[in-house]
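Q: You know discrete backbone vocabularies at least as well as I do. I have my own habits and do not want them to colour yours. No explanation is needed for now; the record alone will do.
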Amino acid sequence: EEQKPLEGAPAHRMKFVFSSLLELLTVAKKYTEKGEISGSSGSGGGGSSSRNAGMVGPQMQDEIEHMPSPWRLPGYLRLIRWCVRTQEDVDYFYKHHFQEFWELWEQIDRHQYEVDYNKCEITMLWEHLLRDYPNYCQLITANN
């Protein structure tokens, strides 16, 4: 399904949303990193699973809710894909945010989750860029 470029004020707003989403690629990477919850080891109290979230303090509960997982980024990645509507969008993405995107790709690809929605969505974004914008493939291969 081919996406059409937006015109006028909606196009200006779309570019703002797109650039704002891309600015968050580095933050998105943090949601894929496996890490420990503070207080989950040692004294035996607190617990580290979400089923125990009601039995922990507010700080630890906040950390539990923001733990990396294989389903934290699909909506974010889908929205980025939806925003890529023109070759100009692809060029902007490549010139300004490719390195952060590549680092996010590598981080997601390191995990071996049984069902990884992050990996599925980031692969669909790659596929969208390569299929619908063949010049993007040329840009990547030219810069090896």
In short: The CA atoms of residues 39 and 46 lie 7 Å apart. Residues 87-110 form the longest helix (24 residues). Helices lie at 9-23, 25-30, 58-65, 74-83, 87-110, 117-132, 134-142. The chain has a mean pLDDT of 76.
